[in-house]
Structures are given as C-alpha cells and as structure tokens.
Design a protein that fits this description.
Layout (H helix, E strand, L loop, with lengths): L13 H9 L6 E2 L11 H12 L12 H15 L9 E4 L1 H13 L5 E6 L5 H7 L3 E6 L9 H11 L3 E7 L11 H11 L5 E5 L22 E6 L12 E4 L2 H15 L4 H12 L1 H27 L12 E5 L8 H12 L1 E2 L1 E2 L10 E5 L4 H16 L1
Parallel strand pairs: 1-10, 3-4, 3-5, 5-6, 6-7
Antiparallel strand pairs: 2-8, 7-8, 9-12, 11-12
Helix pairs in contact: 2-9, 3-9, 4-5, 4-8, 9-10, 10-12
Family: Belongs to the class-I pyridoxal-phosphate-dependent aminotransferase family.
GO biological process, one term: amino acid metabolic process
EC number: 2.6.1.-
C-alpha cells in the first residue's frame, strides 16, 4: 500500500496530542486549546438560521458568497485601512487553518524554504513539508518573540532565491506578542523588492489590547496574503469560516487550491460570518469580548508572576507564555504532565511550539475568570507541594 512519503516527516498536531493525552485525568481544568468559552451572539446565530429556513442549501461560489466577501472587504477597510476587491481578491476558507494550507501550497515548490519565526503555532511547518518545502526557523526567544529586520535580512542573505515566503503570525499563538506599525514597516523595507511572499496570519487581529492592530499588507500589499476569520473575533470556531485576501495573481493561485480541496464553505456558516463582519452589532460583539479577555489577561499575568513565572506581556490573542520558575523541573513536557496529573490543571508544554519554547508553558485564558482563579490556586498548591 502506497502512502505519501512526506507524511513520515511530520507528527500529529502537538497541541491536540497533548490535550488528548491528559483529557482523561479526573477533575482536570483545561487551559489548553484556543477555544473561546463565549457563545456566538444571538443575531449571528439568527442569520445562520435564516439561511437554513430560506433553503439556502445549494453550492455557493467557490470563493464564497458575495455577501460574505463584501463583508470581509468592509471589515478590513473599516478596521485596518486595507483595500481589496470582493470579486477578485478574496477567498472564503474553512477557517484560517485551510487558509494556511491553501496559501503555503500555492507558493511553495519542492526544495523551497519558508521562514517561520519560532516559537510558532505548529501547523505552518507540516504544511510546508507536505508541499515539499523546507521549514526554516528563526529563534525569537531573545528578541521579545518578534522577528527583527536584521534576522530577516540574515535569512535572505543566507538562503537567497530558495527563500520564497515568510510566515508572520501576530498577535502570536503561543506568546501573545505582536508588532507595532513601526516594526512592520521596518520588516517591509527589508522585503520590498524581493520575490518573497508574506503569509500574514492575523486571525487574532481583533484581540489586541494595547494600541491598534496594523497589517503588514498596509506597507507591502503586492507581496502579502492576509489570513483572517471569525473564529477568535466572534467565538465562532465551530462555524469554520476564515478568509484570505491579497493581490489578484496570488489569490487566483490560492483559489485553485481551495476549489480542489473543499469546493466551498457552508452557506449558513457564511451567512453568520457576513453578519459578524458586516454589521455594527458584530463590531460591538468583538469589543465586549475583548474587554472580557483583557480583564482575564491582567488577572492571570499578575497572579502567575506572583508565583514566580516570568511572562512577556501578551499584547494580543488569549494566551500566556510563562517561563517555568527556577527551582522547578525545567523539562516543560514533564512539568506539564505532572501539573495535569497531580495539580489537575492542563496547559500546553512550550516545546510543542518548537524552537525557543522549551522551558515554557502556554495557558489559554479563553476561559472564565472563575476557572482561571481555580487554576491559579491549583498551580500554587502544585509548585509549593
């Protein structure tokens, strides 16, 4: 029986694998997955219901419904001053996850290198491998978990024409770090004039707590594919709606991959997403959620620092990337397993996120404040036992 040989080079998603490993622990409190505990707002659910009741049950255009593509264009213009054409520069995907697959597959040929600032969400690398490319990492643990212009230039000088793309995920999963407009402009200056495509995973763009989110597409529109969606901004993870925007030539290639992979997204889910992105009510939903997450972040960062964890201040997303205190076991996998089994708190080992993640744990604060308070009490008891 023949299988794709590249599958031997990748492992199952480390986040999901660890979560499954500890899920049967009795009375476990899980802060593992980026799964909002907030329900989808009623008006968004009603839009999906209305779609079903209207017998909106036939194939949608492969690129997504006109209503959703126009809503996505409105959203990007309103929030981030980005201008795209709904008819030729937008593809609706099954979450940002499909967007990652489509964009990487569209631009990578066998032997090509893709630059990935690490620690990183462990989906980019296996997708590069499946496309025949070579994931190429830059350790950002010493630079506030952000790629610097010097690091980027060094990679370009080292790999030359082999380097075809760079992944920028900001705000970051797992660290919550994000870039200022000045930092993005500086990166764009290095990339401008090259043939390198920027894959900008901005799925957490609406969850920036300090200042405003800026997209690198504002500085480098002809080289950037922007990934976004409603999973995090509107707690719609199960609806599986994301979108990719970019210059027409690149979007045409992304659209081909999308067509052959999934045909199109679900009509009721797209109706809900159009309501989320295209209305003032949808904007207010996100602002309310962001305020709740900010309060949780502030509590969790302060409480864990008081327990001795070193934590870079998360500027966005809903994760804390905490360095295990000196004097405790520094093997983050062993620490996380013991914390789950003995302390009854589930987190993700930092090494699941690759280079620069060892010695850290990631905690999701997409959980209630009560659960976070309980988790902190359990962690305190565990590390002082």
């Amino acid at each position: 029986m023949s299988l794709n040989e590249r599958l031997t080079q990748i492992q199952p998603n480390a986040i999901r694998a660890f979560d499954a490993q500890i899920s049967d622990v009795a009375d476990i409190l899980k802060l593992t997955l980026g799964e909002p505990d907030i329900n989808v707002p009623t008006h968004i659910k009603q839009a999906a219901i209305d779609s079903i009741l209207a017998d909106d049950s036939h194939y949608a255009p492969a690129a997504g419904t006109q209503a959703l593509r126009e809503a996505a264009v409105h959203f990007l213009a309103d929030r981030y001053n980005l201008q795209y054409d709904a008819d030729s520069q937008v593809i609706v995907t099954l979450g940002a996850t499909e967007g990652i697959y489509d964009t990487i597959t569209a631009v990578v040929n066998p032997g090509d290198r893709v630059l990935i600032p690490a620690p990183n969400f462990p989906l980019y690398d296996p997708t590069v491998v499946l496309a025949g490319g070579v994931p190429t990492y830059v350790d950002t643990s010493a630079t506030d978990f952000l790629l610097t212009p010097d690091q980027l230039q060094d990679a370009i000088d080292t790999y030359g024409d082999q380097l075809v793309a760079v992944v920028l995920n900001y705000p970051s999963n797992p660290t919550g770090a994000t870039y200022t407009s000045e930092q993005l402009s500086a990166l764009a200056d290095v990339l401008r004039g090259t043939d390198i495509t920027v894959i900008a995973d901005e799925i957490y763009s609406e969850l920036v707590y300090d200042g405003q989110h800026t997209s690198i597409a504002q500085y480098l529109p002809d080289q950037t594919l922007v990934l976004n969606g409603v999973s995090k901004s509107h707690a719609m993870t199960g609806y599986r709606i994301g979108f990719v925007v970019g210059p027409t030539k690149l979007i045409r290639a992304v659209g081909l991959i999308h067509q052959f992979a999934v045909t199109s997204a679900s009509n009721p889910a797209m109706a809900g997403a159009a309501e989320a992105l295209g209305t003032e009510a949808g904007r207010q939903d996100t602002l309310a959620m962001k305020a709740e997450y900010a309060a949780r972040r502030d509590y969790l960062v302060k409480a864990l620092r008081e327990l001795g964890f070193a934590i870079p201040q998360p500027a966005g997303a809903f994760y804390v990337f905490a360095q295990i205190p000196d004097g405790l076991a520094q093997d983050d996998v062993a620490f996380s397993l013991a914390l789950a089994q003995e302390g009854k708190v589930a987190v993700i080992p930092g090494s699941a996120f690759g280079i620069g993640g060892a010695g850290y744990i990631r905690l999701s604060y997409a959980a209630s404040l009560v659960d976070l308070q309980t988790a902190v009490a359990r962690i305190a008891a565990f590390i002082t036992d």
